[in-house]
Amino acid sequence: MFFGAPNSVLMTLPRLVEDMFATHKSIEARQLTDYDVFSKKGGISLDRIVLSKSLTDLVPISVSVPLVTEPQGQADFIAILDQTLLKGHKVLAYAKPGAAVLVVSSWNPEELLANLPPESAEVAVARQLRVFTINAKDIAGKIAGAAGPAHDAVQNVVAHLAFLRLYLGNNATEDLVVKAARAVYDEAIQGFPLSKIGAHAWAGLQEAYVATPEATEAQAAPLRPFEVNAIAVEAEDGETVVNGTHLSSWHDAAKHLLFPSVYAPEAEPSDELYPQIPELRPEIPDRTFLVTCTVNRRLTPLDYDRNVFHLEFDTSGTGLKYEIGEALGVHGWNDEQEVLDFCNWYGVDPNALVTIPVSADGDQLHTRTVFQALQQQIDLFGRPGKSFYTDVADYATSPVEKYALKFIGSAEGVSTFKKLNEKDTVTFADVLRMYPSAKPPIEVLCTLVGDIKPRHYSIASAQAVVGDSVHLLVVTVDWVTPSGTPRLGQCTRYLSGLKIGQKVTVSIKPSVMKLPPSNMQPLIMAGLGTGAAPFRAFLQYRAMLASKGEPIGPVYYYFGSRHRHQEYLYGEEIEAWIMDGIVSRAGLAFSRDGPKKVYIQHKMLEDAEDLARMLTEQEGVFYLCGPTWPVPDVYNALVGAMVKNGGHTEESAGQYLEDLKELERYVLEVY
């Protein structure tokens, strides 16, 4: 089996292999060519060489020789002529146990292993596949020089010789491989001796020893199978049929508008009162809603260095429902001016049309302007993973930049990658500016970068109280890199700039922050900064119950920030709830207001006896929301309270808190 791109330099290799077998009268060879034009831009070609020991009148066709992946595959040999297929498609699944796999690529064995998906590595190990790589393009460059007909011809011969060596197996020698090749080649290829090409091909073939992949919590995207869905990739006028991501035109867009039933399936009828808007962030599986900003109010003084702000969105007519404690997913946009500046630097017209996948791992496409794609969908100013460096290296025209990018994406470059990612916090756009010769076409860049992910914020309201509205408490995230470059969080920047009346796409995410089943169970809430958001919803709900005359249990509220005057978030509401008896005890810790720093754990220690009683005797529930750093101190404060007042040892108190986790009575939502 030969997997490749239909119009690549190596597209003639399968025919050369078939011609070689055809010179032997005792072997019957048939070449079957199929195409998958939907799963990758430009399509994928699959050429199968079917061999028989005796002559037959039967001419096999694709349907009579079906593709088989499970349980053991069918191919004795697999050639991957486009290295990108190895990362996105399950090409190794078609190999039978013990088969040889040839990857014609720019990768050395270490780089090949670094780019081999865990799913493919598991197949290679389970079936004991032998995987080899050869850089036919590099070898052709050394022999034939710059790109051209001679370079292309030599490249095909190099790949063919590598196939012959693997086909001959343990019997192969350099001379025997060249001798076998003489069945279809002259002594010289474009003026270059076949023996010289053979020597380079022999030396350039390297084996990559695949090991069982290490277990990881990250969920890798599933690999795609090869699906036969076309018999050709060229139209009658000679133009390539383009599927997948590609630059488009306004004429193409007009066809979609004029003939929607041809280009898109009809939406299934829905009896929902508020059906999903299909055009609203179709790239994500979650139900999305279009809400309207009604309030954007800064809570901290203008001269304060932290911009904490309160947002309210009108949800009427959307069908959005949320439970207390859930989170709101905000599908933010990139900054308009930054996108335009990038387009200008990259040399791409922001008004040009590009057809890109609706989602990074889906087959549906939609057409947008480049500006729309980069502002609303593509995570251009997000942080790149290691694979981006190796992917974009293939487009670098500078050898120095190509090497640097491949190094960062390799196992050896982990420390450099970590510095760029964690200290310098570089974005996809930054990497492209750092290595300006690496400029993939804009339609390719869109697929390499991927989609903007929603940012989730704890909802700061109870819908039973506020009705068709949802509230958020947000702090602008900003920092300065070691090089002095100021940075702003993408989504908080987007939210802070919202105007009244502006539409925002949102979704709902469940959370661990839930009220207990009984309204009489004590609540112990500890929040730092914007960690106060879910507790405002809790208090709104308990206050509503109290206003109806329903009994409620005690509420202890601990809140921490730097200064009372500048950052006592929702302070007026909290004080009113204290006066009304909704909040039984408020432990307010403003760390920089006094001569000695005071944090929420210190306030909790003052109430150690009450906390121990509520947790051990009254089925109280403890919540902590905010940054991770106070978790150990808060934990120690609770353990100390139960040791001193609850008859526990440190060990039994710690185990008691672990048991409360299982009962959802010790709840942490930290970030």
Automatic annotation (TrEMBL):
Q: Does the keyword NADP apply?
A: yes
GO MF annotations, alphabetized: flavin adenine dinucleotide binding; FMN binding; oxidoreductase activity, acting on the aldehyde or oxo group of donors; sulfite reductase (NADPH) activity
**Pathway connected to this protein:** Sulfur metabolism; hydrogen sulfide biosynthesis; hydrogen sulfide from sulfite (NADPH route): step 1/1
How would you classify this enzyme at the top EC level?
oxidoreductase
GO annotations of cellular component type:
cytosol
Catalytic activity line of the entry: hydrogen sulfide + 3 NADP(+) + 3 H2O = sulfite + 3 NADPH + 4 H(+)
Domain FAD-binding FR-type, first and last residues per copy: 286-517
Tell me which PROSITE patterns the record gives.
FAD_FR (PS51384)
Q: Which cofactor does it need?
A: FAD; FMN
For this protein, the Enzyme Commission number is 1.8.1.2
Q: Which UniProt keywords apply?
A: Electron transport, FAD, Flavoprotein, FMN, NADP, Oxidoreductase, Transport
InterPro entries given in the database record: CysJ-like_FAD-binding, FAD-bd_FR_type, Flavoprot_Pyr_Nucl_cyt_Rdtase, FNR_nucleotide-bd, NADPH_Cyt_P450_Rdtase_alpha, OxRdtase_FAD/NAD-bd, Pyrv/ketoisovalerate_OxRed_cat, Pyrv_flavodox_OxRed_cen
- Does Zinc show up as a keyword for this record? no
Question: What's the stated role of this polypeptide?
Answer: This enzyme catalyzes the 6-electron reduction of sulfite to sulfide. This is one of several activities required for the biosynthesis of L-cysteine from sulfate.
Protein name as it appears in the record: assimilatory sulfite reductase (NADPH)
Organism lineage: Eukaryota, Fungi, Dikarya, Basidiomycota, Agaricomycotina
